[in-house]
Amino acid sequence: MNTDDYWEANDCLDRKQEALDVITFLQSMHGQGFSSGDHQQSKKHFTLNVTAEWGAGKTFFLKGLLHDLKKLGHTVVYFDAWKNDLSNDPIASFIAQISDGLLKQLPPRSKYKSSLKKSAISLLKATAKVVASAAVKKTTGYAISELTAESDIKIDKEKCGETTSKYIEKIIDEHLKQPKAIEAFKKSIGSISSDLFNDPARKAPIFIIIDELDRCRPTYAVQLLENVKHIFETNGIYIIFGTHKDELMHTIRKVYGQGFNAEKYLRRFFDMQFALMVPHKTLCSNLFDGKDAPFLKTNIVKPNQTDLTHTIMSNNI
Q1: Helix-strand-coil split of the chain, %, nearest 5
Q2: Which of 181, 190, 134, 140 is nearest to 160 (CA)?
């Protein structure tokens, strides 16, 4: 595997070999279809959680994966969840950035550009309206799900006002359209992924890298995690999260309660986990002028090649 000097100039924590191990593992997960085009034998979709403590080089590692996967001919989109944490609608910013990233990497005359753009706009429109459901409940006293066309509940126009009533009805209409919009978007991305098997210049699967989820506001992190699972669990899409697992579980408990089983909850979203090795003390002593890095004061390990059979654990996060 030939990569340029991304690692040579900056790999102070010796992460290059771990990145190569992860890529090799993902190749094996995708089966023969990863390189030969025999996608009938490939793993259709997959989610990996790359975990390490804060300051252990996750972002550098994930950007190295981004670099190497692109060099190998894959379509790869990177999303920094923390930078987008200011948004009140996490899934809208995510859909917008992922769609834009995919569009930029499609061939100029790709027949899928139009359908992807159209389906993304429809999904963003439906999602934006559904975000307003909290305001609907505050105004009417009912949740969106209770105000569908099949419901006997009617909107009180005298109480809400004519303009507000029409707005609420429009939100309800978009709420009913959302499942179709999601399916159209998934179909569009799936078509792009399937077409990669017929393009010798590009390789399947498509990779989406999501970094810094554990640093986000609890509600933002949970909403993004759950929506990504729902919308992007699509054939030909491999998602790589970068998290501090313990901090992410702490975040989840802030939403669902301290007694909530956050570890079991995360198994719904991550197929497997890859734990970055704790850097050897000698490596970091050079970086910190002879002083130990804070996260090296405990759990020091000797440097050795990453053993994927131990560090990647199926449903054992």
Answers
A1: 55, 10, 30
A2: 140
Per-residue model confidence as pLDDT tens digits over 279-312: 765 555 555 554 444 444 333 233 333 445 445 5
Beta strands in the chain (DSSP E): 45-51, 74-80, 203-211, 237-243, 272-275, 312-314
- What backbone torsions phi and psi does residue 208 show, to the nearest 5 degrees? -120, 120
Beta carbons of 194 and 235 less than 8 angstroms apart: yes
**101 vs 77: CA distance, rounded Å:** 6
Residue labelled with tokens 């894959």:
74
Q: Which residue has the tokens 């910013």?
A: 93
C-alpha dihedral (102, 104, 106, 107), degrees to nearest 10: 180
For tokens 């313990």, what's the residue?
A: 246
Average pLDDT over residues 167-178: 56
**Contact of 210 with 79, CB cutoff 8 Å:** yes
Contact indicator for 119, 188 with CB cutoff of 8 Å:
yes
Specify the pTM: 0.74
CA distance linking residue 200 with residue 278, whole number of Å: 38
